[in-house]
Amino acid sequence: MKRREFLTVPAKSLGGLLVYSLAGEVIRLQAQEGVVHVPLRFFTEPEARTVQAACARIFPSDESGPGATEANVIVYIDHQLAGPWGSDKYRYTKGPWVESFPEHGYQGRESPQELYRAGIPKLGEDFVSLPPERQDERLRAIERTTFFRLLRTHTIEGMFSDPLHGGNAGLIGWQLVGFPGPQMNYRDEIEKYHGLPYEGKPKSLEQVLGRKVQGWEDEKG
Amino acid sequence: MEGDKPSGVFPRNVRYSFLYMKRLKPVDVVIVGGGFTGLLMAKEITSRTSHSVVILERGPARKNGQYSAGMDELDYAVRLKMMQNLANETLTHRHSSKASAVPVRQYGSFQPGTGTGGAAEHWGGLSYRFGPEIFRLGSELRERHPGSKITENVTAQDWGVTYDELEANYWRSEQMMGVSGKAGNLRGEKIKGGNIFEGPRQQEYPLPPHKTSYVTSLFQATALDAGYHPYPLPAATLSQSYKNPDGVSRAGCAYCGFCTRFGCMIGAKAQPTNLLLPLVEHKKNFTLRAGCQVRRVLHRDGMAEGVSYTDVSGEEFEQPARIVILSSWTLNNSRLLLLSKLGEPYDPNTGKGTLGKNLTHQVSANIRFFLDKHLNNFMGAGGLGFGIDDFDGHNAFDPERGLLRGGTMRVQSSGEGPLQGFGRIPPEETKAQWGSEWKKASLRWHDKSAQIAFEGGHFPYRQNYMDLDPTYTDAFGDPLIRLTLDWTDHEKAQANMAIRVSSELARRMGAKVGEERNLGTRYSVTFYQSTHVQGGTIMGASPDQSVVNPWLQHWKVPNLWITGGSTFPQSASGNPTLTILATTYRAADALIDRYLKHPGALA
Fold first, then answer.
1. Among this protein's residues, is B145 annotated catalytic?
2. Distance of CA B567 to CAs B39, B349, B587, Å?
3. Active-site choice (B210, B229, B299, B532)
4. How confident is the model over A66-97, as pLDDT tens digits?
C-alpha cells in the first residue's frame, strides 16, 4: 500500500487569514500560528512542494494581494488529479492516437495525472529552493507545454473555485475580485448596482445552503 | 428461455446483439430521448390519448427542483457536469471528405446535455422565432441571387412548412415556457422597442422583458443612438412569476447568474423537468427509463418494430412498439438511423441519399470590450440582454464583400463567475500570461469587460454532412458519428462583418476594444460556439430531398417520427429551441389527430 503523504502548510492559510480588498486595499487580519498537515491524495510531498512553488510564481503573493499559497491552490490541484477527471474518466480515450490540426484540440494520450507526473521533473528537483527569478526562468522554459497550460489553468481554478474543492481558502480569491459567490437573489441589486461595485460579502455554497456539498471529484463512480 | 444469457460461457464484454436480448412487453409508443421534444411528445400523447408511452433516456434520471447544490462554477460551467460523458461516446470531425477524421476528445464547440430534460436543462433560454424566409430559404436564395457563385454548393431548401403555418405553434411554445420579451411586429405593425425585423406575431409576448444590467442597457442606448433597432432578447427565464396554460406555475427569475450550463435553482428557467415531467410522471400510461442507451431502431419491410437498448448494468433489451419517435440530440438521431441501416446515406459526390445531409452549425464571432466600471457580470440570466437584427438575414447583403446573409448581434448578462472571467485584460496592458504583472492587470480589469456576440445562420453545403466513422467507436463498439464540416468564404464574410460592426458599436460605447474571436482559417472544435448543430434528418417537401415530411414523419417508414434540430434543413441566426418546440407541437397534432386515426403516410 502506498505510504500516506502529507503536505505541511501554515495554519494561517487555512482560513485564519482574511484579506479583503474590494476597494483595492489589502487588510491583513490576525493570523493563526502553527502548522497543519494536509493529507495528499495524489501527489508525493516533494511533488506537492514543487507544484506549490510553481503556482506561487504563476499567481504570486505580492503587493496586489495574496496568491496561490494563501488560497491553498495545491490542495485544489491534488484533489482534482486524484478524482475521476484527473484520470480522464470524462475524456474520449480510445485510439488510434493521431496528431491533427490545433483546431482539433488536445489529442494526446496522457491524462492530467500523467501530464503532471511527467511535467514536474522538468522543473528540477531543486525548484523549491531556487530564488524567484530562477524559478521564473524554469517556468518560461516550459511555457508552451500542455503541462504548463494545465498548471496555469488549475492555479486560476484553485484561486477562484468554491472552497468545497479545496482551494480558495477563507474565500481569499473571491475577496480579491469582489465575487460574492453563489447568491440566490439579485432581483433588486441588478438594477441598483449599475456600474458600481457590489458590496455583498462572499459566501461559499455550503454557507449559503447551510449543509455540506460534495464536489464531483469526491463522488464515487 | 426468453431473456436468459449464457453467463459464465462467454466473456461479459462481448455483445451478442439480438441473440440473447430480453424482449419486453410491447408498448404503443417508444420515444428515444427524454429531452424537451421527447417529453413534449409524451405529454401530448399521454394526455390526449390512452396510448402507452415509454421514454428511453440514456443519461441519469432527474426530478424537478434538484439544482440548488449545483451553484458551482467549477463542476458545471468548467467541467460540464450536465453534459454527455465523452469517455463513452463522442463524435469525430474532419474538414473535408479527403481527410480522415479525429475524435473530439474533450468538450469544445458545442455541448450536448444528458439525463432527463437533456440540453434544455442547461440551456440559456433564448427563445427566438426564425424569420419567415428561413422556411423557404431554398426559394429565397434562388429568387434573390440567381446564378450567384456563392450559392453554387449551397443546398438550402424549403421546409415544406411556412412561418404562417407554424405561427400558432410558436405562440403555443411561448405560452408553455412563459417567454419574456417585447413584440416588434404585431400582425404586421412595426413596434418601437421590439425587434421590427421579426416575422409578424399575432400576440404580444406572454411576459414583459427582463430587468436590465448596466452593460446591456448601455448597449441598448448606444445601438439606438447609432440608428439601429435594439430589442430585449426573448427569454424563457421568466421576468415575473407565471402560470402557463398547462397549469404549471413558476417563480420569476432572481438573476442569480447560475443559468447557462446549470439547472435553474428556482425553476424560473423553462426546463423539461419543471414544465413537462410533472404533468406526465404520475400517469399510468407513461414510463421513463433512465440509463438506457438505445442502439438500434428495429425495422422490417418499411415499418419500425421498436428499438433495442442497453441499460446501465449492460443488459440488452428489445422494446417492441407500434410507433417509434426519435427525440435524441441532433447528431444522435442521424447516428441511430445510420446504425440501424434505415434510409439512404447521403453521398456528397453524387448528391444522392438524404440521411446525414445539410449538416449546419452557426457562425459565431465576437469581440470583447472593456469599460472602466464594475459590470457585476456574476448577476444575470441566460436570456438577459439586448440584440440587434439590423444585420440579420438579407439586411446584411453586401455583394462587394461576398456577403449574402448576416446574423444577429447581442450583449448579454448571462451570468459569469471568476473562473471564466479572470484574466481578461485589454491587449495593450501587458503581454504577460502569469506572474505579478499579469495578476495586477487581471485584478485591475476584473469584471470590467463584456462581449458583443454574433450568431449567424449557416448555409448548408453539398460538402458538409455526417456519416459513420470507419475507425472510432463508442463504449459498446458501435461506430461514432463523423462530421465533415468546414467554413467557406461566406461564413468568413459573415464573421468579418460582425467584427467590424460590433467594434464600431463598442467604440461608440466609449469602450476599449479587446480580443476579437473570428472564425479562423478552419472550423475549430476547441472553443464553445453554440450547441445549435442542425440537420442530418431534415424535413422537406419531397422524399428525394429529405428524410422526414413536414409533419416530421419519416418518408419511407410511416410509424417512425423524428423531432428536434436534426430536422432543420438549414440553421437560422436565432437560437433553435423555440422552433424545435413549435415543429414538435405540430408533429404531435399530426400524429395524434391524423396518424393514430388512420395510420399511414401523411404526405
1. no
2. 17, 22, 12
3. B532
4. 999 999 999 999 999 999 999 999 999 999 99
